[in-house]
UniProtKB/TrEMBL annotation:
<feature type="binding site">
    <location>
        <position position="106"/>
    </location>
    <ligand>
        <name>substrate</name>
    </ligand>
</feature>
<feature type="binding site">
    <location>
        <position position="107"/>
    </location>
    <ligand>
        <name>Mg(2+)</name>
    </ligand>
</feature>
<dbReference type="Pfam" id="PF03737">
    <property type="entry name" value="RraA-like"/>
</dbReference>
<feature type="binding site">
    <location>
        <begin position="84"/>
        <end position="87"/>
    </location>
    <ligand>
        <name>substrate</name>
    </ligand>
</feature>
<dbReference type="GO" id="GO:0008168">
    <property type="term" value="F:methyltransferase activity"/>
</dbReference>
<comment type="subunit">
    <text>Homotrimer.</text>
</comment>
<comment type="similarity">
    <text>Belongs to the class II aldolase/RraA-like family.</text>
</comment>
<keyword id="KW-0460">Magnesium</keyword>
<keyword id="KW-0808">Transferase</keyword>
<dbReference type="InterPro" id="IPR005493">
    <property type="entry name" value="RraA/RraA-like"/>
</dbReference>
<dbReference type="GO" id="GO:0046872">
    <property type="term" value="F:metal ion binding"/>
</dbReference>
<dbReference type="GO" id="GO:0008948">
    <property type="term" value="F:oxaloacetate decarboxylase activity"/>
</dbReference>
<dbReference type="InterPro" id="IPR036704">
    <property type="entry name" value="RraA/RraA-like_sf"/>
</dbReference>
<keyword id="KW-0479">Metal-binding</keyword>
<protein>
    <recommendedName>
        <fullName>Putative 4-hydroxy-4-methyl-2-oxoglutarate aldolase</fullName>
        <ecNumber>4.1.1.112</ecNumber>
        <ecNumber>4.1.3.17</ecNumber>
    </recommendedName>
</protein>
<dbReference type="GO" id="GO:0047443">
    <property type="term" value="F:4-hydroxy-4-methyl-2-oxoglutarate aldolase activity"/>
</dbReference>
<dbReference type="GO" id="GO:0032259">
    <property type="term" value="P:methylation"/>
</dbReference>
Length: 196
């Protein structure tokens, strides 16, 4: 199997169920979609940056491959937007799978108009510093969850979860079982009738 085929397409696997399939671990705390309907799914490309500084993100765009998800530890900073419309335009042109920031973003209406799925801790109009330092391609933390390059990152309306690279196929199979079990519970719920 080609490695890319291991990662399901965005939106096909609910993030809540992906987390359930990992004993309910793996969810990035406090990271939310910046527009309704944003979904992403793909292998992580990681950046660790000084809070509020996006020089490392521009460096990442020199290397990132189609379908990869840019995942950034920005120290949880909410005072400086690490990306906005112009950075998202780059991501779109390079067919990046999406952007996950443990930090902030701006230009949210334009992000939605571009259709670039962005997940972040905060929104602020204040722009980023651009001097570094940063690291690209290392293991980082996002919302308290470890992320290594190539780990499967999935995002939807509920938030973001991270599946370790070596566990993707097992977790995807488990998600299928859980979805089938939920369908049975849904049918049982729909068969309920009021009492009295
Ligand atoms: O100025 C920046 O680097 C962030 C921003 O607003 C954009 O990417 O449009
Ligand atoms: Mg801007």
């Amino acid at each position: 199997m080609q490695e890319r085929d291991v990662y399901p397409v965005a939106g096909s696997q609910p993030v809540a169920t992906v987390s359930d399939a990992m004993d309910r671990f793996g969810v990035a705390d406090g990271i939310r979609p910046l527009w309704r309907g944003a979904v992403l799914s793909g292998p992580a490309f990681t950046v660790w940056t000084r809070p509020g500084d996006n020089k490392g993100l521009h460096a990442a765009f020199e290397e990132i491959r189609r379908g990869e998800v840019l995942v950034v530890n920005g120290g949880g900073d909410s005072t400086r937007a690490l990306i906005g419309e112009l950075v998202a335009q780059k991501a779109k042109a390079l067919q990046v799978g999406g952007i996950v920031l443990d930090g902030a973003a701006r230009d949210v209406e334009e992000l939605e108009a571009l259709g670039v799925p962005v997940f972040a801790r905060a929104v602020t109009p204040a722009g980023p510093w651009k001097t570094g330092p940063f690291r690209v391609g290392c293991t980082i933390a996002v919302g308290g969850v470890p992320v290594s390059p190539g780990d499967w990152v999935v995002g939807d309306g509920d938030g973001v979860a991270v599946v370790p690279r070596g566990e993707v196929e097992v977790v995807v199979a488990r998600v299928g079982e859980l979805i089938a079990g939920e369908a049975e519970r849904r049918a049982a719920n729909q068969a309920l009738v009021p009492r009295g």
